[in-house]
Amino acid sequence: MKKVITLLVFIATITHTNAQTEITGEDDFGSWFMYFGTNKIADKWSIHTEAQFRYYEMASNFNQLLLRTGVNYHINPDAIATLGYGFIETDPTFREFDILGGDVLFDNNSISEHRIFEQFILKNKVWEFNFEHRYRLEQRFVQNNATGISNTLHRARYRIQMTLPLTDIFFLNFYDEIFINLQNNAFGQNRAYAALGVNVTESLSMQVGYLKNHFSETDYDRFQVGVFYNTDLRGLFKKKE
């Protein structure tokens, strides 16, 4: 009898462990759909706009909504300083809700985050390669909506990006970004990205690519579609003569 009980406990433990592994979504190819905009309002100033919809699976099983905006100061064409704010809503569980035939994006298990960030971008060109170095500090105010527990976290990020024009229309884009926690364990995550880009118009471009999102204990593979739309709104802010 003891052997039977021991066997049942062992099977239950394995089943529970496997269930925990399955709900992480690590083995599923997820997707990120993104919009980025730089809206010029003066010769030296612009407004950053951004929206991202992230899924554990291809266009289903919601993971995260990210909305971000900021004010850019263009020191020169190759140096930009930014002060911004972001709102992030995250479902950390790998599962899909089907209520009245649709997905429920937010429930009691969601995590809400208000984020302030400071950013500095430097650009340079080497032969045909366009490089961009992005340095970012983040102050993160995170709340678990199930428990009501709040926490303040600080993080530093560095991204090196390289763009290679293929023609006037097509280009390749690559980047690697590391996230450093300023409390507890230093390493947060690393993102490696490769994409094919298309210049649709002078102000509109698109990228379709692949992201490897590496954490200390897991990796996520993500298909990405990004739309970049840069507008010139200086005419709206000029004083009428």
The number of helical segments is: 2
Sketch the major β-sheet. 11 strands, mixed, barrel
Average pLDDT confidence is: 86
Q: Count the strands?
A: 11
DSSP strand (E) fraction? over 45%
Topology record:
Layout lengths: L1 H21 L6 E12 L4 E13 L2 E17 L2 E12 L20 E16 L2 E16 L5 E16 L4 E12 L5 E13 L4 E11 L4 E14 L1 H4 L4
Parallel strand pairs: 1-11
Antiparallel strand pairs: 1-2, 2-3, 3-4, 4-5, 5-6, 6-7, 7-8, 8-9, 9-10, 10-11
In short:
The chain has 241 residues and is mainly β.
Describe the structure.
This protein is mostly beta strands and 241 residues long. It contains two helices and eleven strands. It has helices spanning 2-22, 234-237, and strands at residues 29-40, 45-57, 60-76, 79-90, 111-126, 129-144, 150-165, 170-181, 187-199, 204-214, 219-232. An eleven-stranded mixed barrel has the order 1-2-3-4-5-6-7-8-9-10-11. The longest helix has 21 residues, at 2-22.
Characteristics:
241 residues; mainly beta; 11-stranded mixed β-barrel; 2 helices; 11 strands; 10% helix; globular; disordered N terminus
